[in-house]
Amino acid sequence: xSFENLQKYLIFFSYLGxxxxxxxxxxxxxxxxxxxGVKTVKEDKSIQIQLExxxxxxxxxxxxxxxxxxxxxxxxxxxxLINSCQLSLAHPxxxxxxxxxxxxxxxxxxxxxxxxxxxxxxxxPVHHMFVAVLHALSxxxxxxxxxxxxxxHSKTDVDLTSLLPIDELYRCLPVCSPQGYLDxxxxxxxxxxxxxxxxxxxxxxxxxxxxxxxxxxxYECFLRFIPDTYLNGCDPAYKNIDIIEIVIKGKSFLYNQxxxxxxxxxxxxxxxxxxxxxxSFLHEPGSGKGKIxxxxxxxxxxxxxxxxTNGLYI
Length: 314
Prior knowledge:
The chain is an alpha+beta fold. The protein has two domains: 6-24 and 41-134, Pseudouridine synthase I, catalytic domain, N-terminal subdomain (Alpha-Beta Plaits), CATH 3.30.70.580; 139-304, Alpha-Beta Plaits (2-Layer Sandwich), CATH 3.30.70. It contains five helices and twelve strands. It comes from Leptotrombidium deliense. The active site is at residue 75.
């Protein structure tokens, strides 16, 4: 169905992923039977569903069905400083269009009133041919690790979670080592290995049947320390850890690729793998399958998505 005053928008939003099943809706309705003869609908706990519910609160009500197109899929538990989607809206009044600021306020009011960990950041009118996933130039991910300063030989010696500041709970991965630090120089060597175009078969999920090419290009990969001045000095638990962020930038990634790259970096930092082993995983595609531990999603953030604005924005 076509609408004369259909306007497409590029929407930027942030979220904490802990309580969601991922950003993209996989199954909209799952029939269950709690009592005989009564059919109930189980809600899909995804970011996409919450976005669409928020946009359905727009007044006056759009004439078209609300359906967003997510640019970057993230798994359950993964956070986003910035993700994006496209949305088309048909205003019921001829010649009228929805003002971006009205869309932002309506959505954020819904998220706040329904206890959702989502914030709409910005809405931009775009060309009708715009597709958020296809027109993205790059995506940047950040994985935050909290390196426990004191030497710990085994995770059974101490509960690492007990050493975390409360602000970092579910937002970073606590890491320990017998030395009380990671070998940053060797980790940076591996970062340098990742940069460029490689076959990342060793870094894709073996459980997922994916026939797409496994060659990907990494534009940037580096480590950065977060100075104490940026951390919350009110929580003494910050004295227990050093926060290190692993930054990885590319146009697109395989499923679980970023987390497997992070797993390889941490393993090298702990001395469990060598730089040469990771090099061989890249030079001999598939040789590293099953040999890389996938860290949990809590510390992973989709940090940025870049677009070429020429000819897309209106």
